[in-house]
Amino acid sequence: MDIKQIQDLIRFVSKSGVNEVSIEQKDFKITIKTSQVPTIVNATIPATQPAAQAVLPAAAPPAVLEPINDTSKYVTIKSPMIGTFYRSASPEKPIFVNVGDEIEPGTVLCIIEAMKLFNEIESEISGRIVKILVDNASPVEYDQPLFLVEPF
Predict the structure, then answer these.
(1) Tell me, which fold does domain 75-151 have in CATH?
(2) What tens digit of pLDDT does each residue of 32-41 get?
(3) Whole-angstrom distance, CA of residue 68 vs CA of residue 48
(4) Can you give the pTM of this predicted structure?
(5) Distances in Å between the alpha carbon of 97 and those of 56, 66, 111, 130, 146?
(6) What is the pLDDT of residues 43-95, one digit of tens each?
(7) Domain ranges, ordered by start, for the chain
(8) 148, 99 contact by CB (below 8 A)
(9) First CA to last CA across the chain, in angstroms?
(10) For position 115, what pLDDT does the model report?
(11) How many angstroms separate the CA atoms of 53 and 120, rounded?
């Protein structure tokens, strides 16, 4: 099962109202439990990439430069997965991006921790960060808006 299939399964389970789903194959096992609060995902997947070190970045408030009323001219960068949103790699490290920063394709915007893996989320566009829509260390859902970007 690849990450896209897992994300689709999580979306399906969260919308269906089912409380728990378990799938077990020869070298793969996943259990998805839902409740009124966030979705909890426990999975054992064969290692295909090196495990990331566990880090707990310090909480930092989202940055806001100015009130945004008309968002039609901005591009929304959304979460590609369910997990926990972090603005920096660790408490000692600087924040990846702030409001007003210029970004280009490949710029690391944040980290989303999912299933004990820390996934760097990179920009696919060039532009300027206009608004950060999520608090540091907050849970995020698949396809949840994270950033508003004014494209170049």
Answers:
(1) OB fold (Dihydrolipoamide Acetyltransferase, E2P) (2.40.50)
(2) 776 544 445 5
(3) 41
(4) 0.55
(5) 18, 16, 11, 11, 12
(6) 555 554 444 444 444 555 554 444 555 667 899 999 999 999 999 988 889 99
(7) 3-44, 75-151
(8) no
(9) 37
(10) 86
(11) 13
